[in-house]
Amino acid sequence: MLFRSPTVISRAAEVSAVELDPLTQQFVQVTYDRGRVTAVASGTITLQQQQDNAIWRTQTFTIPDTAIVTFDGRQVSLTQIPTGASARIDSSGPVGGTLAVVRVNAYSIGRVVPLPATSSTG
């Protein structure tokens, strides 16, 4: 079976890229995981990742105290994110190394979590 690469990534459960950090001039890996929140505890959040009705996986993320956590655009504590909310977990780190969560963006139940912009001019 021949698979074709997508021309647009808009509904993906996970997207990963390698980018040059302009401040350090070092390459870093960034990953964006999206899904529905199934559990929240002090320091962890669990997402069920899917596209359309196909479930890909359920994954628990450790959220460091330094991560920015928002719900509907306002900064909150992790435990204020309700089960059932949509969320995107942004992680980064050295290429091929361990990634750390840097941001949790959660939205009201039923809202679709956007992927970050994937291209620019310049």
Account of the 3D structure:
The protein is built from no helices and eight strands. The mean pLDDT is 87. The termini are far apart. The chain has 122 residues and is mostly beta strands.
The main sheet comes to: 8 strands, mixed
* Rg over C-alpha atoms, rounded to the nearest angstrom: 15 Å
Look at the helices and sheets and give the structural class.
Answer: mainly beta
How many angstroms does the end-to-end distance come to?
A: 37 Å
What string, H for helix and E for strand, traces the elements in order?
EEEEEEEE
| Percentage beta strand | over 45%
The tally of beta strands, per DSSP, is: 8
Count, helices? 0
Instruction: Give the overall shape.
Output: globular
Helix content: under 10%
Mean pLDDT over all positions: 87
Low-confidence stretches: none
